[in-house]
Batch of 3 targets.
Target 1
Amino acid sequence: MSEQTPPEHDDIPEQAVDAQPQAMDIPEFADDSVDFQTARIAELEGQLKDLQLRTQAEVQNIQRRSERDVTAAHKFALEKFAGSLLDVADNLERALQATPSEESALKALHEGVTLTHKLFVDTMKRFGVEAVDPLGEPFNPELHQAVSTQPSTTAEPNSVTAVFQKGYTLSGRLLRPAMVVVASAG
């Protein structure tokens, strides 16, 4: 094997060979500058931690809001469907009121409609649909729609004396207000 000889310095300029490495212009930090830098780092770390906590809190708020929205969506998903079924309940109630319960053929029809109505109402209750039947209660504009007023000496003023049509709620939210007659001072 051949030995390699070190390269000749003939091709390197003389001033580069003699040159010493030059010191970089790095400012020297005084002790108070180091303290300042340490304090600044601590301040920035504190700000970072604060931002991380705020971000974490915001994420939790978004999650809670999303969960609440999903719960509400599940709870009220049947609102339009349930509202459409209210006419069925009304018609069953009208059929019950229209059929006498004494005659045998009509009695069987009345019992059948009564059982159908009970099953229908129970099914609606199971899914959070509740009737609002405010007869005798104070008028509540959030649940009742006054169709008319009627002077009364027996009923308390501003109370419901007649119900033309029941109202309904779905999980506490109004689907349809009850149509009522309200007593006025006689």
Target 2
Amino acid sequence: MTLATPLIVVFLILVNALYVAAEFALVGARATRVEQLALEGNRLAAAVLQILRDTQRLDHYIAACQIGITLSSLILGAFGQATIGIALGVLLDTHTGLEPLSAHALAATITLVFLTATQVVLGELIPKTIALQYPVGTALYTYWPLRWSLTLFAPFIRLLNGSGALILRRLGVSADSSHRHIHAPEEIDLLIRESRDGGLLEDRESERLREALQLGRHRVRQLMVPRRRIVGLDLSAPLDELLERLDASPYTRLLVHEGSLDDPIGYLHVKDVAIAIAAGGRLEDLRALVRPLLTLPSSLTIDRALGQMRERRARIAILVDEYGDLEGLLSLEDIIRELLGELSDEFKSNPALKPVRLSDGRWRLPGRLPLDEVIDWAANQGLSDWERGEAETLAGWLLERLDAIPEGRCSLRSDGLLFEIERLDGAAIESVLIDRLQPAAEEGADA
């Protein structure tokens, strides 16, 4: 064994490390970051970006890496056995007294273990870690060696990819492959949590991103103003009375109906009334100022409702149930509040729908708080693992377990917690007090 032997071994390990780093770097690189570098004039980034945007080229690139890894590993094993293995076998045969066959078998085993361990550590784990931590930089630095490899391995790539595609089709599996990162909303939510825990996102930023993801899964009925809380104007009332109600209302848009709230005819904007009065003419009737109203099903998801409101340039919409009955009112402010949190307003006060810790250790939660937020809050507090059920709010969840409309203050024991209905607005549960139960407490409802 000469001095060239260890040098060749090191070279083959470095070649393997190059292909490993190139594969993990290109798969892990964010196209947006590469595109930013390309716009700044980085030619390597522009070349890598073309590969990332072309599924077929990306597939060939990964195939070249895999061929390079396989060939370098096989050559390293064969070369090591032909040089290090033979030299070590002669050494063991001479100095250990083993039979020649046993000495060479032991030498082959030692050589295989040594080269495998060295290859895994230096040629696999280290370059993989570096590539995952610095994917964009590694992809740029390995671009030219991989481009030469693509030319060198082109016949093998076509042959092997074609053979693999043929076998996949025989198995009934699509041969179309894509190495792009495609994540479900749940996976994106997990990535946001990990970024927040890693210090890359602040709590408020991560919360806003998570709320944006929920728009496609939550229904508009979770954000709406319930029918019983809608402030409307009955056009059958005298004009002076209507103007007084407009003046006293903290809202700029009010639902307009005739006789019953179940028959809305549109909405009235306070600005239109002010302009009509400022024009100097006598205001005889408000009907001419009524604007058309968008009607949406209450089962619609928030993102779809937002799209329809933007398309129709509507700021508010009424929500109807499956029978066509008025169920609530939705405004753009409600959706923005869901994304950004509570918005201040100089004319009206909207108490935030958030859990509040009381001085005695209990928690006060609004009955209208969405059940998803309640479950997340409970998990963060380590209170309980709740069964969701069919309800969409805390009040609905309690009604499912009470099986009746509560009368006055009543309590419910469930999931190791004591729920006490603190305040009612008619039949609606306004606020709930929550406390931990002692281990000996049993489940049930108390009047």
Target 3
Amino acid sequence: MTTVTSPLSGAAVGLSAVPDPVFSGSMVGPGTAVDPVREPTVAVSPVDGIIVSLHPHAFVVVDTDGRGVLTHLGIDTVQLNGEGFELLAAKGDSVERGQSIVSWNPVAVVDAGKSPISPVIALEASPDALAAVVEEGPVETSTTLFKWK
């Protein structure tokens, strides 16, 4: 079983409330989301593993069981072309849970007219593969968001 922790501090938000049909419809996979604190912050790795995909607005870490966890920083933030995001790691890096990956400012995302809500997705998982999914309440970067059976 893989424990996936929050990459951000803020408030948990169920996927159905994410303002993007791809995420709210679980088309990418099941999971949850975090509405981050409104201050400059750092997104951290939600699992131990290897960064297999890294963009200013999103990253995927694959754990030792081959399970990929996507963290998408905000909605439609790809349209910001990396502005306001700083990569703190590189594709191919081995990372530990809690290790810094991307520095960003959710306030700048809001100011640009985008949602800062950040989905955390279990890629290629079936909906019944997740347990103890947190969909509301405050979370810190160490808070468990879900368990992947």
